[in-house]
Amino acid sequence: MDATEKPVRFFLVGVGGQGTILASDVLAEVGLKCGYDVKKAEIHGMSQRGGSVVSNVVWARQVFSPIISVGEADVLIAFEKLEALRFLPFLQPGGLLLVNDYSIAPVTVSAGVALYPKDDALYSQLRQRSQSQTWVKGVELADSLGSAKAANVVLLGSLSALISGDADVWLEAVLQRVPAKFADLNKKAFEAGRAVVMEK
Amino acid sequence: MEESYLVNVKGTMMVKRLLSGNEAVARGAWEAGARVGSGYPGTPSTEIMETFATYPGVYAEWAPNEKVAMEVAIGAAYAGRRAFCTMKHVGVNVAADALFFGAMTGIEKGLVYISADDPSMHSSQNEQDNRQYARFARIPCLDPADSQEAKDFMKAAFEISEQYDTPVLLRLTTRVCHTSTPVDLDAQHEHDLAPIQYPRNPAKYCMLPANARKRHVVIEHRLDELAQFAEVTPLNRVEQRSSEIGIITGGIAYQYAREVFPDASVLKLGMVYPLPVKLVKDFARSVKKLIVLEELDPFIEQQVRLLGVELFQPQNLSSPKRADQKSIFPVFGELNTSIVRASAVEAGLIAGEAEPVPEIALGDLPPRPPTLCAGCPHRSTFYILSKLKVPVNGDIGCYTLGIAPPLNAMHTVGCMGASISVAHGAAVAGDAERHVAVIGDSTFFHTGIPALINVVYNQSNVITVIMDNRITGMTGHQQNPGTGKTLQNKPSVQLNIETLVRACGIEHVKTIEGYDVKAIESTLKEWMKMDEPAVLITREECALLPSARKRWTPLQVVEEKCNGCTACFRIGCPAILKSSKMDEKYNRPLAEIDPFLCTGCEICAQVCPRDAILFRSQLARPLTEG
Prior knowledge:
Chain A: Keywords: Oxidoreductase. Chain A is of the alpha/beta class. Chain A has helices at 20-33, 81-86, 107-110, 119-126, 138-145, 151-162, 167-177, 183-198; strands at 8-15, 37-42, 52-60, 73-78, 91-100, 133-136.
């Protein structure tokens, strides 16, 4: 994806503790390595306690607003399925949608006062904005490689392939961000995520 | 530390680093040669002091509250060292007494007050606009728009402070604090470290009425000089583009101005107080339609109107209801490009989009509100308070989430330290119900202590629960006077809360382990019967601390014993789920424990009437033994 002509906006959503901030750090670094101006915005504090978390990354020749408005995102990356739907309005019509095939029940669901939407309902709801959805079993894949915590890196691998990014640049940015002792795991996680899209 | 990048800017290679606004402010403080930083954690300001603390050769601390932090910074600046203090917007209210006297006396070396405001209240109880404090106390206010400016303005603030003998308010907002943008790195400012003679200048530093009256004249004169400086400083700049629309803006709103009005001319104010009168008037004359674009209060807009400068009046605006109304953009919440665009279209400044983004129907999605974490040691107390059905006066911290269903165990929340005094107010007003005040360890140190002394001195029967989770939790685990460590990781004394409470004159004091549901219940019930103040300290470290994580052991439900009675659901733990398996007799879902979330705190096991949840000690044994 080329951000020289017009900005490229990434909208990352998930639940506190899923590693969305690390993923947005990596995404921001990739943008810098590609020679773009970059802004990365996130919210800390109260909302992190089991609540929805949102992070914005924008690449452009010159970035002004760090936050993405409704209908502006080029890519929506959801680390949790329900959050994909919650923040769908931020995706521009025809934008790219990358979904971690993983659910975390909000307390409203576990307490039995609300129902978690079924997969097929989610899928068809998401089609309102995007015909090109990629669902990746990030947690399952990462778990099979050694740690479910690397699910965010699996997603980054898939994203790099989806937007035709240079794998080496992306992997370098990932490895700069993770502890050295987990370098091998994260490399495998990245490649596994990339393969999911390449093999499609 | 972040990675550095070589970025090609206009043909020269510069070292750039991606820094958040907060990290950039800390870097700016260090580059400016600041020696002392004191703050109280509060979103969105916290990372400034955390980052500054890691630079070599600096002193950084967490003070017990913002007033203390500001006085420490003032004291260091009197002593001839560049100093600053950090806090969130509401913290400035706590520190306001110090803010004003610091404005009166001036300093020996640079002094910067940092206020991080939170438009849209992502993590706050109100959304006050602290630019107002600058005008209130007659000190200059700088308002950066990105991380580069955050760093540059921090350095400029020290220079202005010394040049004009005044504290400077550096006002940030959430989107500047928590947005990362590329920043040029510079070397540290060289400082003369020769010994300094502490000033003996009571006419300047002792604010007795006779001296203070003279100082007020001085600071009004200082403000005149600062207004002259505002005309020439590069902090304020005109970007001349089309003369059709001219926008006066500052802070993060500048970014939205550039995006929504790419062709408009802009007067970008880096120093938003005092205003450059001539610059504003000249800019007004150079454009056809003049507007002000700013977040929250009409701070700039009002002052521009006071100058008699005519602003563009939207046709659709019926006559203003109030003199201090904003004319085009909303006064509440954060702005963003879509809000700015919609307001501009409505005002007739720009055309609406030919093809608006179609709306989509999402239906009713299950909300995902923040909750007390799995394993939170506050849960047990809230469960009991909810059972006792007493009015609970709450406070500011993670435990504010005791308000959420199914616990619903909090009835008032105002500001730091207010729990105990608000409860006392009800008691002395003769409220028939017994009031319980709930406050955290850090908040108790912050402003809870004087309120507790008031309960003792004026003899009300308030029961106070100090929820001591051994850390400042909500802002992300900061040290405090109870933890035994300083911000810069030096070992320190651990203030003993029980001793402190007894010293305040409370006779009925008990410390109970945070997870001990029965002991908490029996103690509170016993105290309800007597008509005296009492303090319960529930002590258990935050389940997210690394030391606590090591002990995590997920519990299990014995399906044969569970009959889906819902007792464990009522503690509101995110690790307890409704199973897809049903109890045959009552046809209701059994309980199930999420092994990835459960920490093994055993609160659910304690409340289960059928012993269907195994305690840690039972887990090692085969399930059949129960």
